[in-house]
Records
---
Amino acid sequence: MSLVKRPNRDRRTGMTIVELLVVLGVMAILLGIAATAVKNGTRGKKQREAARQVNAFIASAQARAMELGRPVGIEIVRSVFDSNNNGVVDVATDTGLSNAGLMMFMVETPPPYAGDEYNSALTFSETSGVITLTDNNTQFTASSVLFATGNPVEVRLNYRGPRYQATVTNNSPLTLTFNRPAHDHSIFNSSVPVQIFSRPVRNSVPPLQLPTDMCIDLSCSGEGVSGNEFTNWNVYNTYNSGTNPIDGNEPIRITFSPSGNIHRIYPDGRNERYPHGNVHLLVGKYDYALNALDVMGTNGLNDVTAFPSSGTPVNYESFINATDTPTNLADGTAMWVSINYQTGQVTTTRNRYIGPGYAYASTTTPTKNQEILLLSREFATSVLTVQGEGNQ
């Protein structure tokens, strides 16, 4: 058999230039889609995490109130440093952003104080609707260290019935006074046992420190759909009078009853009131919060006259334009943490996106400013999950 030698043929493998260009084009498209997805997924990630932590901290306060059977709440501390330690706002020396909260503490109402003996009672007297309770039998001597003269407290008589808002007019011997409500016709003896409920104080639960560069923007936070009661210039205007003024830098406290609903609101850390509507806290960037130390003595969002560095008049109306100074109210990645004052339900939603082409219903600046707040909070109230127009 003869062997025939066949010539070797070169076999070449690979891609043509056209095929390579097609592959590179497909890869470029896929990388573009992936980059967009990553960008959208990480956009506002810090704000979402900060809002989640605030939400969880509020829920833990509500759970503790249910466990203890007495009011527990949160305290939002303003980020301001009293440089000269004089206890009042001083634009020349104080530093920080008084309308930004970086830290939250948990506070709780101490157990009621009913005296030093098992049968302790206060002497009851009433003149023209003003009720006075006095420790004539020295059975409440511990009050000298528990309460300060002038402090507001709540009292309940005979271990039942309503709580009355009273004032400690003297702590040694203990003397409490309050006005009897017009509809109250309760009958009390000359000597009556009393339960005294003091103001909430910080407990041992570790405080919440918000993530880096994040804050609770108090200039946009408050009750209802358009209130900004937590901004420090409103606090300053409301309470900066009399012999015991408030400087506007006091912390904000919100307490919850054992059933979870909002029990009381302390807009200045001292005075208390019942809630008038749902509470909305805006969580955003610290750099976008307003430095309001230079606007003390004014009121309303439209009265922010200038930033300390620029001296250029600004207001919330101009903040919806991306070319202007950015603020959390105009930031679509900011988050609202909202608390239903009746049920205690806590929801977290994105801020409503307001574009530069937005048309206002009115041309006056104060109305425009309040309209932005109203739109943002209505959106926060209507949306129960972290989605919506804020993603635009």
Note: The radius of gyration is 30 Å.
---
Amino acid sequence: MPLIKYYGSNRPGSIKEHVHHEDPGHPCFQGSHEAWVSVCRACEDSGVPRGQWNARYLEHILKSPYKGMNYIGGVGMVDGDQVLPFDLAISSEEYEELKRGILSANEAYSNQLIATRDAQNDPNRRADPEHEHNRWRTRVWIESYTELTHHVAYRVDQSCHAYARVRQYFPNGMTRHLVDLYHLHERNIGEAIYDGLERAERLVDLLALAGFGAASVCEVVGTSPSTCREGLSFEIATLQARIENSPVPIAPEDLENARVGEADHLPLRLLREGLSAKLPTGSLASFWNALERQADDQARESGSRRVVRCRKCDDEREVGWDIKKSFEALYAAARVDADFDQQRSLRGRIQHGDTCLGSLTPSELLLEVSRLQMTAIVSVSKRIGLLPQTGEYLMAGVPVSIFDCTIQGDSCRVEPRRFEVGTVPSVLPMRASRNQGRAFRAGLDLPPKINPLVLPPVE
């Protein structure tokens, strides 16, 4: 097996994994992939059969080599005597010397990239003045398959822009960014943090699409004013408060009567997603989708059609299944007083990307979620035969802790101000609600532990 020096070619058994750099002037620059892609694209556009692409690639390398081929791609070994025209057989001494040089250059280049990234990571940077005028800054950690440029504005919507402050890399290819979202909200900070979370979710929606992969908000640092002044008190809001529910005992016989048919998987899955959602808006959308699936099935089974009247000729005609009538039947069966048109409008605004907290308070939104949750639990439970009886319990929203802060020099005074958690009566399977030992507790651990990253920059 001859040892070779190659110029970017993809050789089996080589140390190509050590040869990858973005800098074209680097002696270890890898140029074969870009050259191969360009040749294949040209062959495909001109209708060259796929079996001839390798020959065209070799012809391209020999006649008009990619500029990266002027630099060493790497060293390795090949089976037999198959040394290509653009490879060079070398001695074992040359092999070891070149290999040491490549590894050393890679290490230096990698250290340079790390140093550059660490120098750019700066959580204390400020935003453009026009974005700081949006009043609130919500800071979150997000994970995705994207890489955001440091300290430049990414448009989330008309009244919200995001700035990446810190970037971290994971071995699986994902990145973790500390992101500041500057957003406009006219109400108090206790509601502004909900608005900031909605904007953060919208940002990761966009990143998932742009990066063709998973994206999520993995930690909420908190919400604060865009800036503060030394010696003047300001508020910050966090989600560090806790809600605790005692577990519901489930015995093996509790699931004996459950029967999940072919058409029942989706409503059951959507119900679970609604009960597990982090935000009320996510819960509402999932509960609605679970009910919509059931309402569609019921309308088809009963043959209930929706009839509309033409405004011009006054004739009536059928335009599809009467989903509204089925929804109202589901509301009635669960003894829920809900307005279909209002719920549908709210669901549409949520699933089409509009923010709801501009017109609804968190408590009002939680009430609408509770109505849909009651209906969904009753209907799905009866459908699969699992705990069809129901009882009341207390449904809670996301707890928000609000603190008064004052920055003076290098010190920061933090004092708890208030604790907010929206609650509304909701529904729970009877076996759980009859459990007298079931407890609900909400509160804040003292003394408070404030993440310094939540503090805004001082003007």
Note: The CA atoms of residues 187 and 454 lie 19 Å apart.
---
Amino acid sequence: MPLFILVFFLLGEYFLGRLLTPVNSAVYFRDEIRKMKENGEHADILFLGTSRIYQSVYPEILEEKLGVKYVINGGTATQRPDSSYIFLKDLYREVKPGVVVLGVQWSSLMPEANEAGEIESTLMMYDRLSASGRMECLLRKFGSSVWFDLFPMYRYRKEFRFASIRDNLEKWENYRKNGFIPNAELEQYYHGKGFVYSNSSKASGNVPIQDEGEARFSVDDIVPEKLAAIDNIVDFCKKKGIKLYLISPPMSLMNLYHVEGYQEAVDFYEAYAEKNGLVYHNMNYLKDREDWLPDEMMADYVHLNGKGATCFTERYAEILRKDLNGEDTGECFYRDLEELKETVRRVVAIKAEFTPGDRSVRIEANCLCNDDVTPLYRFELSTDGGKTYELLQDWSEEAELIFEPAEGKYRFRILAALDPEDPKPAWQVYDQEF
């Protein structure tokens, strides 16, 4: 009976699993790697890391700027260091990269807040692995409690409907006939070689303050297993003769001001790189970032959009060229966060909280800016969904406002700036119903 059940499951997996497996970026990526291997090609440069890598590094631009043939973006959502290590070994067997750039960020070595999120992120990397890589991933990363998620018949069981299967078969047939064609109409779409292009954009001054009370780096909180995984990557690259570089991809200024211990994280990675004979660059500290990386270049508070990725990759291509040639790049970067802050003459981000009372609501605003300035606040109100606004409080140092609403829906716009003539105020919009 156990043998019969196993055979029945495997047959179901072979037929139904294939029917349910979606045509997605993992399929495109795996096929690209397979074709490279079949043609005897190797990857000149391989990037590994989180979604901040796959939305920041534009392979085609690097190939053009550096005169190389294949740049592979191996970033996946919330990719952990141990996943990067497994992915590196698997891709080395497939396409033998000569240069690896590993993305690290302040949170890379911190404890996980969500175990379920770790499983989901590992599956995204797992889908891009070869058969041997999947076996290693299964043995090293997954416990028996999630083994069923490795089988498409189980993972996509909610799509087990005739309409869904028919739609999926049509997509597979179209893919077999026409190959991969980027869908530029989507908000985010797979562009090729692992890169994801985003059409989203924050408006100037509209990057929100997020993760309050949670964004903190401390050397004392480093998870030893995560650091050991990076050690494994360093050792593997040295053993295989791979040039390894560490970078922190760009994110909004909000994070640099808001993350507690951010400079401590940068200092840690700089010391780690020096200890292991590596080069580390914090790409957030590239000079003149206020000019080349405005809020409009962000898809959200931690990811670049497509235009931002284009701009960033062009700049990083010049940095990487110098690194590969052994040239000094120190003049391209601010020394530390304090030196960067000296160049920032605006309010970086703002947030407001609404506290209802018996017959009124208290609006309290706070913002991120340099310590040597006093921000000014402006409160505006709209009753027509944002078409027009009336002034509740003009520019003032007062960060609180008491408002007595009638019953209905309201939209508030809260602004903060260094002075009333500031061309780049920070602002947020909030919809409230009373």
Note: The domain at 349-433 is CATH 2.60.40.10 (Immunoglobulin-like).
